[in-house]
Write a structure and sequence with these properties.
The protein has helices at about 1-30, 35-40, 45-50, 55-65, 85-90, 95-105, 125-135. By secondary structure, it is mostly helical. It is globular and about 50 Å long. It binds heme C. Pfam families: Cytochrom_C.
Length: about 140
């Protein structure tokens, strides 16, 4: 009895797999070249990986309300280093969070290159720390 159930499950699974394959082939013929349909699922983005973390939720809100995005992207260097590169460089310790928050407030250059980060005197130290905790969370 158990063996027959197993057989049934295998046959059902095969039928399902074949059906799905045919469908994908049909639709890819009708639309774009088949390469797109056959491509493996993209790697999970850092946003998706951390979006439910309270540190993420608290930090991104404050980052969005400031000008950080002018010079920083999560995964790509633009004017400033990417958040992922910053997260790779520093452990998320209280010491590093304080040091980097002070740098966000005061601005500065010399760690990643000669380009200068503008100072952010209007931010509170607490806001800067929440932003830095969010950035240091974004490890690959
Ligand atoms: C005018 C462009 C600019 C803006 C706006 C900006 N940054 Fe930066 N940021 C930089 C540059 C350039 C560096 C690299 C500085 C260096 O090499 O020391 C940097 C570096 C950093 C670092 C790493 C510092 C270090 O010493 O390793 C952190 C953290 C950071 N930025 C956070 C922020 C946050 C948070 C905001 C928004 C409040 C922000 N930045 C806004 C350009 C900018």
């Amino acid at each position: 009895m158990r063996k027959r159930n197993l057989m049934f499950a295998i046959i059902a699974g095969l039928a399902f797999a074949c059906g799905g394959g045919e469908k994908a082939a049909e639709s890819s013929e009708a639309a774009a070249p088949a390469t797109e349909a056959a491509a493996p699922a993209p790697e999970m983005s850092l946003e998706d990986k951390y979006k439910d973390d309270p540190i993420y939720i608290k930090g991104i809100e404050k980052v969005k309300n400031s000008d950080c995005a002018t010079c920083h992207m999560i995964d790509r260097k633009i004017i400033g280093p990417s958040y992922a590169d910053i997260a790779a460089k520093y452990e998320s310790t209280e010491e590093n969070v304080s040091m980097l928050a002070a740098k966000v407030l005061a601005g500065g250059a010399g760690v990643w290159g000669e380009v200068m980060m503008s100072p952010h005197p209007a931010l509170s130290e607490e806001d800067a720390k929440d932003m830095v905790r969010y950035i240091l969370l974004l490890k690959k």
